[in-house]
Specification:
Elements lengths: L21 E5 L1 E5 L2 E7 L10 E11 L7 E7 L2 E9 L2 E5 L4 E4 L4 E5 L4 E7 L5 E10 L10 E5 L4 E3 L3 E10 L2 E2 L8 E8 L4 E5 L5 E8 L2 E3 L2 E2 L4 E5 L5 E6 L3 E8 L7 E3 L2 E3 L2 H13 L28
Antiparallel strand pairs: 1-21, 2-3, 3-4, 4-11, 5-10, 6-9, 6-11, 7-8, 7-10, 9-12, 13-14, 14-15, 14-16, 16-23, 17-22, 18-21, 18-23, 19-20, 19-22, 24-25
The structure holds manganese (II) ion.
C-alpha cells in the first residue's frame, strides 16, 4: 500500500508523517494453572500481532499461602512458546528431556514444530510472580520442524535516558536477541523510570502491540491501563509514551503474518483435521509427543474437538 498526501494540489504544506492506526483493545480475563491471567491475544478485534498469536500476562502478584502456578504436561504443535520472567522462578520440563528453571530477566523459547509436550511449575519459595507467556505461530514452511528448546539467561539491554530496553526477540537499535525465530518479529521489555518520556522507533513494516504490565503509563494522550492493549497497524514509525510512576511495558510485533491460523487448545494449525488428530494422539498417550518425565501428577487431557464443532 502506498501513502498519499491529502494536501490540495499546489499546497506547499508538508503532509503529516504517515502513521499506522492505533486501536485500544481490552484484554480478557482467563485462568492458567490456577492463577488469573490477562489474555491480550487473541482478542476478537485482533487475533495476532505479526506471528505473535497468544499473549498471557500473569501478575505482578504476591501469592497467597498455597497459591501457586502448576501447569501439568500438555502438548503443542505448530508454534513456539515464549516465556519472559520478571519475578518468580518457574521449572520447565519437556518431552525432549529439558529440565530448566527460568529466573527473572530470562527467556525460555520452546519450538513445538511437529510436536512437543511440557510442564511448568512455580518453584516453592517464589512469593511473587510476574511473567508473560506468548506463542509465536510458525509459518507453514516451518511448522512441522523438529521440536527444540532454548534457554536464554542473558539478553541484550539498551539503556536510554528514560528506559532500560531489553531485547527479547528479534532486534532493536542494533541489538539482536539470541533466540531462533522463523518470521520477522520483535519483542521488547521496557522498564521506564518515573517521569520518563520515551519515544521508541518502530519498524514500519510491522504491526505492534504495546501492553502496560505495571505502573502509570500514557501512550499518546491517553492513559494505557494494565489490561488494555494498544495495537498499531503497519506504517507507524514510532510510539511515544510517558510514565508518572516507574513502569514496565511489553512491546511485541512483526510483519503481518499473512496466513490464516487455527488456534485450538494448545495447538496452532491450519485445518480442523490437524487438531483433531493431534488431540487424539495426545489423549491416546501413544508417544507421538513424547513424555514429560519428573512431573508429579497426571497430564492434561485434550478436550473433545467435536464439542467445539471441529471435525476431521
Ligand atoms: Mn504450554
Amino acid at each position: 500500500m502506498r501513502w498519499r498526501t491529502t494536501s490540495p494540489a499546489g499546497s506547499s504544506d508538508v503532509a503529516p508523517e504517515p502513521e499506522g492506526r492505533e486501536e485500544r483493545i481490552p484484554a480478557h480475563a482467563a485462568s492458567v494453572g490456577g492463577l488469573p491471567v490477562r489474555r491480550a491475544l487473541p482478542t476478537r478485534a485482533r487475533r495476532m500481532a505479526g506471528p505473535w498469536c497468544f499473549l498471557d500476562h500473569v501478575g505482578p502478584s504476591v501469592l497467597a499461602d498455597g497459591q501457586t502456578l502448576r501447569v501439568a504436561p500438555h502438548p503443542h504443535i505448530g508454534l513456539q512458546t515464549f516465556t519472559w520472567m520478571i519475578e518468580g522462578e518457574v521449572l520447565h520440563r519437556d518431552s525432549l528431556g529439558s529440565v530448566q528453571v527460568i529466573r527473572p530477566g530470562q527467556v525460555n523459547l520452546m519450538t513445538a514444530g511437529r510436536g512437543i509436550a511440557h510442564s511448568e511449575e512455580l518453584l516453592p519459595g517464589s512469593p511473587r510472580l510476574h511473567m508473560a507467556q506468548l506463542w509465536i505461530a510458525l509459518p507453514d514452511a516451518k511448522r512441522a520442524i523438529e521440536p527444540s528448546f532454548e534457554h536464554h539467561p542473558v539478553l541484550p539491554v539498551i539503556e536510554t535516558e528514560g528506559a532500560r530496553i531489553t531485547v527479547l526477540a528479534g532486534s532493536h537499535d542494533g541489538e539482536r536477541a539470541p533466540g531462533t525465530f522463523h518470521s520477522p518479529l520483535v519483542g521488547l521489555d521496557l522498564s521506564a523510570r518515573a517521569g520518563a518520556q520515551v519515544s521508541l522507533p518502530l519498524d514500519r513494516s510491522f504491526e505492534h502491540v504495546l501492553l502496560a504490565l505495571d505502573g502509570d503509563v500514557t501512550v499518546g494522550d491517553e492513559p494505557l491501563a494494565p489490561g488494555v492493549l494498544a495495537f498499531f497497524t503497519p506504517g507507524r514509525a514510532q510510539v511515544a509514551f510517558r510514565c508518572t510512576s516507574e513502569a514496565r511495558l511489553l512491546l511485541v510485533g512483526g510483519r503481518p503474518f499473512g496466513e490464516d491460523v487455527l488456534l485450538w487448545w494448545n495447538f496452532v494449525a491450519r485445518r480442523p483435521d490437524e487438531v483433531v488428530r493431534a488431540a487424539a494422539e495426545w489423549n491416546a498417550g501413544d508417544g507421538a509427543f513424547g513424555r514429560v518425565s519428573g512431573y508429579d501428577g497426571e497430564p492434561l487431557r485434550a478436550p473433545d474437538p467435536a464439542v467445539a464443532g471441529l471435525r476431521r
